[in-house]
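Fold this sequence, please.
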Amino acid sequence: MLHSPLGDEQQLVLPVGFDEIVRVIDRYVADRRTGLPPLSRSRGRRLPALLLAREPDGDPAAGAAEPDPELTALVLAYGQRLVSPAGNVTTRHLASLAPHAVIDDLRLIRGGAREDVVGGPHVLLLEDVARQLRTSMPEGAGALRLPEFDTCLAVLRADLPPGDAEEERRALRGMLCDRYTQRFQPAAETAQLGEAVGGKWGAVLQLLTVLPGGLRRRWYSVRLDRRHPWVGRMLGQTGRSFLNAAAGLRAAHQHTLAQNAAESRHPEAASLAARDEAVVRQVLLTALIRDLARAARPRLWSRLRPRRRWAFVLLLPTVGGEGSACRKFLDTYAAVSRDNGSSPLLVLGAATDELPSYAAGLPRQTVQGVQGGTDAHRAGRAAAALFSAAVAGRAADAVHVLPLPRTPDDGTAAERLASHRAVHFRRPRRLDWARPVAAATAAAVLCAGGVALSRELVGLFFDEHPSAVGHPTSSCRQVPTGEVVGLTDGIDGCDLAHGLYAPDLRELVRTLGRQNAQVDTDRPYRTLVFFAPLSVGSESKRTVPTGFQMLRGALLAQKQINDRHLKSQVPVRLLVANAGEYFRYGSRGGLNTTNRSDVDVTQMIIDRASKDHIAAVIGLAQSRPESQQAAIELGTRGITVLGTGVSGQRMVEGNSPVSYFQLSPPNARIAKVMAAFARHSPRLRTLAEPASGHAGPAAVVVFDPRDEYFSADLAHRFDAAYRSTGPVHLVPYGEKEDGRPTSDVAETVCTLVHRTNGFVLYAGRSGVMEDLFHSMQGDRECRARQGRVAVLAESPAPGLTMHPRLMSQRYGGLTLFYSQFSRPAPDGPFARSFREAFHLSAESDAAVGYDAANILSEAMNAIFTTDRSFSPSALVTYLQNPGVREYVGESGVITLDSGHNYPPNKEIHIREITPEGKRVTDLTCGVLADGARTVTTWGPGGRFSCPVDEVP
């Protein structure tokens, strides 16, 4: 190899600007991506091949560049910059700063008889380049692997027995497989250990040592013929078979060797041999460039990735005539570089003889950009512009001539090169190990996640009853309030019960489990989900959730439905979903701004819709933005929602999806009926007197101004309907703590009632009614009043309506009037069955839950007669058209279709709890289930008209 002595460059006479060119080359040798964005990639980006030449005499722009044998020293001098002394006094050595190789014409002469062994000078040339690149890898950069180059080289060197094409293919396959599996052969000590152990365990040990290598060999053999498809393309062969291409490559190589060995050659044969030699050289160089591109960009997680930013440098000190080694290599590189995409190989040569025809001058824009300035600055800028264009993929030519000025340097350039010998490159750092450590950690996390996910999927598809092993389902989550939200079928072990009324819910869930266990899931069935707030927070003292009675009605309906065994009937399973207090965890995002956790019970329902054959959701039980968001989420998946106990006007207007229906009248109707009752009721007049100058008594309206969906909506609608009759005083009372004690609210209410001799319109939530009643019962103004304080409520506390005697026992100073949307006959079949099942009297909430399940069952049975595998969206379509027409249920006569998402003129009663603890009915309006008749008047002798809905 040609190398200048370490001090020779100090005596070199350098052309002006050569030090500037060296600095540019140094930048790109140290970091081949200099000037590129971090993540940019392109097949057209490659480092240029520079061919140093001399500017012509006279004007530099007057003619083409000229060769100069003295430029060889410049190329060799640059090669010395790629090594640097390293080590201490005893271990001092030269360390490579970037992998590099020098092509030497004398190398072929010194090879002598080795040419026959290695297969010709053209093979020896590229093999020597690969060897130099391997041995010049910088310390800490790892070993250079050239798998494609080594495979092609092995194909050319293979000593195969003569035979036909198929035998040659088999021989090539066997040779390559043997070569590949050599590095996986077990050590001799391992085989000796197996023999020493002997017996069964010795055989096992030998099998374990041999099996991995055998499997690798088999895998490589199967994939071998589809590897390296580019070889066949370069040889002009069709198909992707590598073994066919390898046979063709060997044939071309053997023909070249035969012609070179012949004493006399025909001109045409000599031309053909020259062409074959060029093809073999091009294939080998292509394989080398592909391997270098792969080696320059290790895998993302490799510690070597940040350490291999340098370029592979190839020095051609004597690019002479067409027979020289450097010229042959440069010819081959120019021929293949355009088809190899990006290349990390930087070629620097010196033109010592006639310039190659393919060597292009500087790009026109580069020449125009460097016309001004001194020769030194002009040469440096030209080199920088050329590298920038090539790396960015804008250079079309592979080889460029870089003319050097003929003006000699004054000596400062040589001094600078001598004082700054080494290329500045990135040294290995301990932080480089962060990549493999992070990759291993990520792989471990992904594996752990995969195992966990596989367990969940196994439980989802194969384990129908997770409670059998004592573990609750994933549809069960504990939230910060202490509640457990989610959904259960009563069998899966999910305990939703929490708080003061946990025993009541546990008993209902046990009933649910017994009834679901009787459903034959091997035959077609559908599932309904009862979805409502069924628990209260750990520190909450709220009353029993209103959804309990609705759930009891739905459970009774499920049992009766599955006991009918009709000719065309869909068995019904029932799931219970707890949304948590205030429906906070029932949905997430959208209208629900209170749930800041990742818990979303609606999403749990959607996730189980397919597995559990969920057809519809009933309940909700509360008018809130959180419950409407749940209806919207379910509607996007085509799941029907049939609301019970829901009366907020916004639930049936505005954002209400087409898949939402409800069985309760909205606030617009309720407010009109309550205003009519307050205006005319003789029973109310015994406790409240008309205000001065008004036809009716003053109304003290207690409401929650922040509850816009229910409380504030009802209060304002009542105010609009009643203000013409009597004065209305609005008193804020929040469902949640707002900093104002309940006793202060009660004092304000009692003062207004005492002063105006009016009544209380309670428009608040049922859960905080008894808090206010307790403070009113002890307030001085309410106790000083003659007679009881009348309270008219739309949403009374369930405990008081289910056990009316508690009203007189706890709140003797108050009389409760409340609205009710149905009156099941006390001795009717429903009331008797309900009493037998739950030992409670049936009332409006129980009836609406009962009707919801029965209505959906009737609709599913109708669809089932024509479509036994119907989807949830089919139920939505059925309820819109033909819909439900005057269905006579326990909660009233119900009509639902595309024009009515709630029953028009829904049955409404206003009942009173007397001092004796009995319930009496003071008002009845609407379409009644009892006799399927419409009541249009109320009061003594039917003196007062009932408000009527505007039905389209």
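The radius of gyration is 46 Å. The mean pLDDT is 83.
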